[in-house]
Amino acid sequence: MSQLNHLKIVRGDASPEEIAALIVALTAATPSQAEAVRPAEAWRDPVRSMRQGQSWRAGPGAWRASARRD
């Protein structure tokens, strides 16, 4: 394991158990990479509300065409 100098105790005399508890607490508070980058849910996708190549005209069957997911 390589030496990483991310934490520095500047005051006091911390025991190895206290340092381990601090590292566990900081690790638990940090979101994992999988949680940090979640894919957008389909219902929030703005592309879903855009109809490429389709017009928004009223007429026979317009209500049926508006619900189509092409």
From TrEMBL:
This is Acetyl-CoA carboxylase biotin carboxyl carrier protein subunit. GO terms for molecular function: acetyl-CoA carboxylase activity; propionyl-CoA carboxylase activity. Residues 47-70 are annotated as: Disordered. It holds the Pfam family ACC_epsilon. InterPro entries: ACC_epsilon (IPR032716). It comes from Acrocarpospora pleiomorpha.
